[in-house]
Amino acid sequence: MSVSSRFAPLWDVPLGLVSFGFSRLVRSGLTLISRYYNPNDAKATADWQVVSTQFLGSPVKLLWTMSRARWNLHALIAIAGPFTVQSSLTLDVSSLWQSAPSWTAVVYTLKGYKTITSLGSLTTPADQTTATIELPPGRYLVGVRHYDWRDPVQLPAIAVDGTPTLASQTLAAPPDFNQFYRELASRRGWLYSALNFYVYPLLRWGKGRLPEPFVKSTFLPVPNPETHFFYGALDRGERLTLDLPADLLTTHSLYFSLYSRDCFPHDWYPIRHDHHTTAPMPEQGVYILRVHPKTPEWLGATPPRVKFVVSSSPL
């Protein structure tokens, strides 16, 4: 460890605390703005929004996303809503099965974007056409994640309290649909650095010292309920080696993502081998390994043991 790395916590941790406070201030401000422009009544029209170049073209939407989530770079993601619900939401899951062999639909509150419940390909029979989710009265969003999607993707119709509310939508979705994430780095700047400066010290020095539920909920505000997550921080020049338990790739799909220190996408790919070593990081950054069950019997199982070894390479 270099001298500068040894003393890095002396400035990283205090500045991280300032960044954490700033990030919460930004989130609160964006929530107030959204309430002003989308009042909590039944008049707002629900629609489908797909995370794409067009969706993130607005600086406000990019800022909102950067303040609330860690990019899932492996899934085609669509968000529907808002819905004013009295008792239930019904999804056309046949469209989801038509679009992807692996999918998850998650219901969030409009206020605070808290996960309420979810359903997915692991819990829904392939011959089922619709699925109804019972909910308390309130305002909700539905987020759909498609893995290994087929072109085109059919976004599902949604009914609220038994009444058709949102029609299905066909989306052209070639295999390289998510390559737009690579263009986002051109929009990096001081605002996003300040917004997410806390993430690196949180994972570098807070992990193992702070309560794990706090670290997870702070780093992963809206995680997929079906997925196991492993994450950490890498310094410039460091590489990560993964050693997987035997047969893990038979029972689970593994998706690896690398992000810059300010949480912009750097690289992502599926893990195909039991032993894998990443390229040296060109800058400080963070990573996520998503471990997603392939079959229902692995839902709720104890998280698999994955060995992580960090080593340094001169750049």
Task: List its salient traits.
315 residues; alpha+beta; Immunoglobulin-like; 2 domains; 5-stranded antiparallel beta sheet; 4-stranded antiparallel beta sheet; 8 helices; 34% strand
Describe the protein.
The protein is α+β, with helices and mostly antiparallel strands and 315 residues long. It contains eight helices and 18 strands. The strands form five sheets. Strands 1-2-7-4-5 form a five-stranded antiparallel β-sheet, covered by helices on one side. A hairpin with a 4-residue loop joins β14 and β15 (265-270).
Write the layout of secondary structure elements.
Blueprint: H1 3-7, H2 9-37, E1 47-50, H3 59-68, E2 75-85, E3 88-91, H4 93-99, E4 102-109, E5 115-120, E6 131-134, E7 138-147, E8 153-155, E9 158-160, E10 163-166, E11 169-171, H5 190-196, H6 199-206, H7 212-219, E12 228-234, E13 238-243, H8 248-251, E14 252-260, E15 265-270, E16 275-277, E17 285-293, E18 307-312
Antiparallel strand pairs: 1-2, 2-7, 3-6, 3-9, 4-5, 4-7, 8-11, 9-10, 12-17, 13-16, 13-18, 14-15, 14-17
Helix pairs in contact: 2-3, 2-6
What is shown here, in short?
With 315 residues, the protein is an alpha+beta fold.
Mean pLDDT: 90
Distance between the termini: 15 Å
Helical residue percent?
A: 10-25%
Strands side by side in the biggest sheet: 1-2-7-4-5
Unreliable parts: none
- Spell out the helices and strands N to C: HHEHEEHEEEEEEEEHHHEEHEEEEE
The computed structural class is: alpha+beta
Dominant shape: globular
Total individual domains:
2
The biggest beta sheet is recorded as: 5 strands, antiparallel
